[in-house]
Backbone:
């Protein structure tokens, strides 16, 4: 775990919103947002002045991906782990009826969650596309965000603008692939093949630096929402989503303290393409997590949680 500056050196069913909560109890709750049920988990200290933390999952995951981190962070914080619209226990409406699956939609969801459920500004912690959601929310409503922590942020390498920087032989097939992705019977077949334990386990083992952390329990938890009505449409909508913001758009607009953690063995979001993010003014530290992959919070909570807890404590003070 490496760092270039100061932070790493100093780190050695339904209830009313804002009700005091027990750090020993993780509650699975539901919030109504724009007519849709949104699932989330809640835990933490009963102290009303404790810092609030909102955890935001990545693509194909849900709030369950933070199950190892919630108890640690809840010792001194009010912790909320949200299911983005289309994922986990949240509703999965057809795209455009009335909302599209975009970072603007999810960013607004997180901002409204902070206002209506958390009841105070919060620290946003994201993994993968959850990082882009966190930054989008911070740009939309800076008064609602105390700080942003990004864990292996999605680089959005298939975005239209980023593809223009690729060699022609890598960029040329993309329009044909996107057209193919519009053929729903084919995508339905592909999705059903993908949504099998063996397939999910294989994919996760590619992404995790610590492959032993890819357990049958994890696979089962991540697979469960894949069988909900609408899950295929959500999957299709996002893999065809090549517009919207990229990190390079949002990072310069951040006005809050920003911490970046990155697994050195992440095969999906290569760290060598991300190190330049440390140069943005809002980024106070870029910490490299040696030997970890794309989901460090699940692979090594004993490493990640103390870093996050100390950072939150420092910024709260």
Residues:
């Amino acid at each position: 775990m490496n760092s270039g500056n100061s932070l790493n050196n100093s780190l050695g069913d339904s209830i009313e919103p804002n009700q005091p909560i027990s750090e020993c109890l993780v509650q699975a709750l539901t919030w109504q947002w724009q007519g849709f049920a949104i699932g989330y988990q809640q835990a933490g200290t009963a102290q009303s002045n404790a810092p609030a933390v909102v955890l935001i999952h990545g693509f194909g995951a849900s709030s369950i991906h933070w199950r190892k981190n919630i108890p640690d962070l809840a010792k001194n914080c009010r912790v909320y782990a949200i299911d983005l619209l289309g994922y986990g226990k949240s509703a999965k409406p057809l795209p455009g009826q009335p909302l599209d699956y975009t970072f603007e939609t999810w960013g607004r969801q997180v901002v409204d969650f902070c206002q209506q459920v958390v009841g105070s500004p919060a620290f946003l912690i994201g993994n993968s596309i959850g990082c882009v959601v966190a930054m989008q929310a911070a740009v939309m409503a800076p008064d609602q965000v105390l700080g942003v922590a990004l864990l292996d942020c999605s680089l959005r390498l298939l975005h239209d603008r980023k593809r223009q920087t690729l060699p022609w032989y890598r960029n040329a097939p993309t329009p044909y692939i996107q057209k193919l992705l519009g053929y729903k019977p084919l995508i339905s077949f592909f999705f059903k093949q993908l949504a099998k334990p063996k397939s999910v386990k294989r994919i996760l083992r590619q992404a995790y630096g610590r492959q032993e952390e890819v357990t049958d329990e994890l696979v089962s938890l991540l697979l469960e929402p894949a069988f909900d009505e609408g899950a295929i449409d959500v999957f299709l909508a996002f893999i065809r989503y090549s517009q919207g913001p990229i990190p390079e758009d949002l990072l310069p607009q951040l006005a809050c303290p920003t911490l970046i953690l990155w697994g050195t063995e992440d095969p999906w979001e290569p760290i060598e393409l991300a190190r330049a993010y440390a140069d943005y003014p809002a980024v106070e530290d870029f910490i490299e997590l040696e030997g970890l992959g794309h989901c460090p919070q699940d692979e090594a909570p004993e490493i990640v949680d103390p870093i996050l807890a100390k950072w939150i404590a420092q910024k709260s003070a």
